[in-house]
Write a structure and sequence with these properties.
Length: 286
C-alpha cells in the first residue's frame, strides 16, 4: 500500500478529492481530506501499488500548479485494525457502539451494538457513521418504521441499530463480499436473527431489494457520486411519507446531492455535519 500526500488550500483539496474519487477506474483505493491548519488541508490518496500511486501524484501535480505530492510506501499490515485498536466506545443517541472489551463493562441505559475493529466500514467512529447513527436515533424516536433498507451496510451497524431499537425487519446490502461476511458475524454476535437480512448486491436494483419495497426508511452511507446516481431507484423504493438518511458526502458536496433528491420531490428535513462530513435526512411526499 502507498500513500500520496500533499498540503493544499481547502478548495483545491476538496476539488482533487472529487476528481480522484470520481474517476472510473481511479488510481486511488481511498481518498482522505482533513484540516491540517487554519490555511492548509491534508490530501491523502491510498493506492495499492507504486504505479498507481505515481499516477495519482501526477494527477495532483497536473491539477494544481507548483504543488509536489509525496509518495510513501506503507508498512504491510492491517492498517484498519491498527487504527481502530483501543478506540473508545462511540455514543450516538441511545446507542453505544464498541468491541466486546468495552461492552463487557457496560452498565445499563444504552443499547449496545457489538462491532469489532475490522476491514468492513462502520465502527461508529467516522463522521458519516456517527452522523447516521444520530439521525437514525431521532427517526426511530419520531416514528418506528416497519421496514428498513440499508444500502452500503458495511459492518451492518446501522441496520443492527434499527432492529435493536425494535424495527421488525431490516435489509442490509453491500457490493463488497467481505463486508457482507463480517456483517453476518456481527448479526450473530448481536443476536439479530431473522430480523436482519443481508445481501451481496451492487446499487439498489437487485430483485430481492425491489421485492421488499416499499421501505419506510432507507439508509445510504456511501459516497456523493453514487448517492446522486441512486436517487431514481431510491425514490421508487421509499414508501409515501417515508424517509431517507444519506451520508458519505463531504459538506461541499451537499448541493449536488440536494439537487438530485429535491428533483425527485423529496423534502430536506434535517442536516447534520460532523468533522467535515454531512448527513442529510429527506422525506418523500405522503
Amino acid at each position: 500500500m502507498y500513500r500520496v500526500h500533499c498540503l493544499l488550500p481547502r478548495a483545491d483539496a476538496e476539488r482533487l478529492s472529487d476528481i480522484l474519487a470520481g474517476m472510473d477506474p481511479s488510481p486511488a483505493a481511498a481518498v482522505s481530506v482533513e484540516e491540517a491548519s487554519r490555511v492548509s488541508w491534508s490530501l491523502d490518496a491510498f493506492c495499492i501499488d507504486e504505479d498507481l500511486a505515481n499516477e495519482a501524484a501526477a494527477i495532483i501535480e497536473r491539477e494544481v500548479s507548483g504543488v509536489s505530492a509525496s509518495v510513501v510506501e506503507l508498512e504491510d499490515k492491517d492498517w484498519v485494525a491498527v487504527s481502530l485498536a483501543g478506540l473508545p466506545a462511540v455514543l450516538a443517541g441511545p446507542f453505544i457502539v464498541a468491541g466486546w472489551h468495552e461492552l463487557a463493562h457496560l452498565e445499563g441505559g444504552r443499547i449496545p451494538i457489538w462491532i469489532e475493529a475490522g476491514p468492513a466500514f462502520g465502527t461508529g467512529h467516522h463522521g458519516t457513521t456517527k452522523g447516521c447513527m444520530q439521525a437514525l436515533a431521532l427517526e426511530l424516536a419520531r416514528k418506528r418504521p416497519r421496514r428498513v433498507l440499508d444500502i452500503g451496510t458495511g459492518s451492518g451497524v446501522l441496520a443492527l441499530g434499527a432492529v435493536k431499537r425494535g424495527v421488525p425487519y431490516a435489509l442490509g446490502t453491500d457490493m463488497d463480499k467481505e463486508s457482507i461476511r463480517i456483517a453476518h458475524e456481527n448479526r450473530k454476535n448481536n443476536k439479530a436473527g431473522r430480523k436482519l437480512k443481508l445481501l451481496h448486491a451492487r446499487g439498489a436494483g437487485h430483485a430481492t431489494i425491489r421485492a421488499g419495497a416499499p421501505y419506510d426508511l432507507v439508509l445510504a452511507n456511501i459516497l456523493a457520486k453514487p448517492l446522486v446516481g441512486l436517487a431514481p431507484e431510491i425514490a421508487r423504493l421509499v414508501a409515501p411519507g417515508g424517509r431517507v438518511i444519506l451520508s458519505g458526502l463531504l459538506t461541499h458536496q451537499e448541493p449536488q446531492v440536494k439537487a438530485a433528491y429535491a428533483g425527485r420531490g423529496f423534502t430536506l428535513k434535517h442536516r447534520r455535519r460532523l468533522n467535515g462530513w454531512s448527513t442529510l435526512v429527506y422525506q418523500r411526499p405522503g
